[in-house]
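Schema walkthrough. Field components (list of strings):
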Amino acid sequence: MALSQPQLATVKRICWMLSLVVVAIPFLFPFLWMISSGFKGPTEIFGEPSLIPRTWRWQNFVEVFEYQPFARQYFNSIYIACAVTVLTLLLSSLAGYALARMRFAGAALLMLFLMSALMVPEEVTIVPNFFLMKWLGVMDTHVPLILLPVFGPHGVMATFLMRQYFVALPKELEDAGKMDGLSRAGIWWKIALPMSRPALAAVAIITFLFSWNLFLEPLVFISSLENFTLPLALSNFTDPYGAPLWHLQLAATSLAVVPILIVYLIAQRQIIESFAMSGVKG
Amino acid sequence: MASLNEPGTTVRAPRAPWLTLKRRETIEGWLFVSPTLIGFLIFFLGPLIAVVFYSLSEWNLLSQDTIFVGLANYEDALTQNPDFWQVIRNSVIFAAGLVPMNMALALALAMALARPFRGVVFFRTIFFAPVVTSAVAWAIVWKFLLQGDAGAVNQMLATVGIDGPNWLREPNWAMAAVIVTRVLKMVGLNMILYIAALQSIPRDYEEAARLEGASEWQIFRMVIWPLLAPTTLIIMVITTIGSFKVFDHIYLMTGGGPENGTLVLAFYIYQQAFEFFEIGYASALAMIMFVIVLALTVVQLILRQKGST
Amino acid sequence: MKKGGLTMTRQGLFAAGVVASALLAGGACAQELRFTVWTGNDAHLAMLNGIAEGFRESHPDVTVRFETIPAGDYTQKLTFQIAGGNPPDLGWMFEDSIPAFIAAGVVEDIGPALRETEGYDLDDFSGPAMDLWSDGDAVYGIPFSTSPFMVFYNKEMFEAAGLKDPLAMAEAGEWTMEAFRDAALKLTEANDAWGFEFKDGEGYDSRIMHAIMPPIRAYGGHAWQDGECGFDDPEAVEAVTMLHGMIFEDQSIVPPGEQGDFFSGSAAMTVNQISRASKMPEAGFEWGIAPLPTGPAGAAPIIGQAGISVFAQGDKKELATEFAAFMTNAENVAVMAQFFPPARASVLDSDAFIDANELIPAEQMAYVSDAIKQGSVLPSHENAPKILAAMKPRFDALFRADADVPATLAAVCAAIQDEL
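Field assembly_structure (string):
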């Protein structure tokens, strides 16, 4: 049976969609399975697989908070990520503005110098930073978790992102500001920053997630449960003898991941664009 | 300008101002960058230089005993320790598996999703979702899915009659598993970079080629691919560096096992420094890592220069 | 919801402690000792806080804060604290990490202080129990838990398989490695469960030594002695070959990467310490404990130890040492005996100890007591972290169906010889 042209197009379209759906499975399935398993009991979790739990064990979500100070750890992650984000926004826009707009001696060299940081993995500097933080007396506090992302390669990346954006901004408004007698700092704060909201938003989103997901630094610098951040707390759902408590771990992981996913679903365009901006910078 | 107009400064106006506009600009510029720069020097460059010195010592983390040993740590890594070369091999396999797979999949997805159609946002959102998810959560869930016979992946394979391997327990399968799950985690990022690049290609190019009777493959090969070259290079650099930095993913999924089959450089450094207390040896490894990443970046940048001229 | 209630109390106590210490911080004599532990168990913490409360009778200004660090990361995090210049005053120590800590000089010699403490009687601790923790007259820790590994078994599954009770077999002298292997196979066939699960299901990961040492010792082998590796001796090879056969031929032991939890009824036997009996009331099946099976070399009970050490970098070492002495005096060792089998001979022999654990009948506790007296600790070494890390990949290779056991064990020895 021969298919007409439009029919053929429809068949093609359906095949096309089906193949996309198949490819999407390994991306989507882990989330579904994570949430579903977070509701299962320790025996059901490895029993007959089923996406819908046979018995909904809400208690998992209570036990997550009993097992360790999970609410406190959740709060730690939120406030650290906020602190890192605010500091990064401030410093990166300040430095990025100077690098974009001010013709000062040594600026080009400085750019090159900072850029080298983008190539150095955190693992390279973690050991000396361990001793630096010890010397500063801030072990097992959140200070390293705030300072290192702000001043490390990520901060440099944010600075470049801001610089790229400032460079592309029209100069006229700033010149007008100069006429009105604004200082450099005034121009930066009152004119340049308000105009660069998209870039600030991009830096904020990327920085928040960067801090939120940080693992190596908390692992090395934090040792008491009350000071843990979420990624550390998630890796910590083992029974007192080291065996993983999958049902609690997955319930906790759901609690950590789902809010971020919801925000992502609401603001997906903005978030995806932010990452696109950060990638184009190189 | 505002401060120049203040009474105190105008009084001395007749003298040739030391604070020329140019000087002023320089001072202000350095002031603006100084918070970033000072932090950078203390928390990044200082430590980077310190690693060089650390690497020349034998230093026990716990007892803090330190002796100068010259290049012995490097010698140990490069000539004595059999684990080192296995670690390098693993890191190279990891990168060699991850980078092409990531880029090919990213490009394929981008080609599929660059043009609007009904559902395009839905698919983009799904493919990008793992990027915003924490690596720890992703690793935990996949470790769970990849458990032996009881794991969801093997349970599902069993329903279609495939007896899946014990993924995280067999060295080669474990390496494959950590690579693929890492690709799934990160591919969305490269996908959107490719989408952005594809959308910036004027459609006329494609139309013109099509009018001349070029096949879809020819259009891709002759028109699109060359125009994507700068993006491809950027993505390659980022992804390659990223693949050498992978720590949390390995730490949580396999702990470097089985049989050291997934022990990669970033994890090996951590292990030597903080589990075996070998600060000196770990610092030598960190230097080696630094050199490797630097070399890879330089090579790729040279390629880029060549490509653009 | 009983658990939730207790936790609330614990958090309440913690909050009260924080407020109290904040208030007291102004006072000149108020001091706080930070004590790291790896238990988060409410009953354990209540008991520890009770002991700290007792200490206040003689030291009214001293509070002790017990800080829980999860067992899996315990040594690692403790290392970070000590190396990071933020050491606790005292802490629990695992048997496998204490030699490295002694060698690095980070634990304090509290021997002289203990000998001077009135009524302490250091010699009450049995010699073998102190072996790991002392060096000549120097004492680097006091074992608070000297707990033998026992076989936990599911009585209902033994009945379903028509097998004799292991405790009865032990009394008749029939509880041998062969009987154990045979039982595991029959249990697997008769029940919808595995015959045997390694300790906490971690026999292929963090508990390799717990998995392999019982049979190796029962067959007369050893891990290492005087700097020589013993894994490739014929006794050890025979023992590990048996284990390998159980996993891959009989398929009666939960294999690598699989889940089979004894406490939730998916394995018929496991090996663990009696502190784990606290998990049994929720399990919902009839159970018992029996000694480890004997082998050609007779009975070879194995004990796990944990001790209390004072850290050398602490700034309140004297006070910390006083608390360590208080915590391990005869009276408090008897209190702790409800969870942690003691190493003090005077407590071990008392009826109070035999009756201490309400979950375990006296006739079973008698075996526990015997095992403590005759048992030996798991092998330890100051290079333990490196040795275990070097062993791990080779044991990964061992626990595969097609593994060549003698060759793999030889490879284990080759890999760890340098560190021994």
